[in-house]
Amino acid sequence: MGSHAMAEIDRNQAPELAPASILAVIPTLNEERHIETCIRSLMAGDARLREVPLVVADGGSSDRTVEIVERLKSEFPNLQVIHNPKRLQAAAMNLAVADVSAPGTRYIVRCDAHSIYPAGFILSVARTLEATAAASVVIPMDAVGDTCFERANAWIVDTPLGSGGSVHRGGKVSGYVDHGHHAGFDIGMYRQVGGYDETFSHNEDAEYDERVAQAGGKIYLDADIRIRYIPRGSVSRLSKQYFNYGKGRARNVRKHGQRLKIRQALPILALLASAAGLIASPIFPPALVLPLGYAGVLTAASVAVAAWKQSPCGLLAGLISGTMHMSWAVGFLKEALSETAP
After folding, report:
1. pLDDT (tens digit, 9 = 90+) per residue, 211-231?
2. First to last CA, the chain
């Protein structure tokens, strides 16, 4: 992800916004473990937050997510639940904008049920949108975890071996960027470009950013608004997540004629090189240097993270990195090749 000339803003100089001019949305699907913590963090820090419409767009949770939200309504009267029959996050956001936004709504704030938000988050995002006149505001994500696997995931995902150096992963400098973790939107631009593409189950954020750029909109990374994010807690859930990320990126490349950045191409090269080395090794044993070299990098990462954090949980870092890389690459190639197959 590239960045343009850095531009610091003072969101406190923006005119005070009416809470009713903001719509906050949390897409959910089976988030009973996280949803109450998320909502309470969003409602902390300013009494006016209880005047901001907060919509939970639920995709048919089979756990206690909706029950928990319904219980919290007595404490937070601005809270409401809508049913998202299409289940996807992109559809949840579009549905909330279409069905819940009021004539005076100017800004949309997108919230993630897996995240823990700083006090006053919703108002801060809206103020940054107001101060910058940006089409979108994106923010850095600081991963945290409770279990050993989640902690190792959090430690490695914000490094170049994990996220590949994405600016919104632990970014420290504010400024205009090409893409980032979505936090807020100008509702006028959102409607102008047609909202999220609901055919994208993943990577809908990058696809949206591409259309915003084509429409002349700017995307601002506010490094002062940071969220804590709880990453996936098992190999199976992580592999599914990154497989879908890879598929989404392939669809984005195809739809907009984009080229992969070097950091995005590296997992594909690692997969192809490792596979080629294994296939060729029976007739050319030195080819094993390719998969063994990659495994060596992951092993070194495990040792380095364990030493850095002084925790044996860090030894899972290599497994987690490899799962991210290989799952992303397989998802990308599967989607790319499925389109070219006769």
Report:
1. 999 999 999 999 999 988 888
2. 33
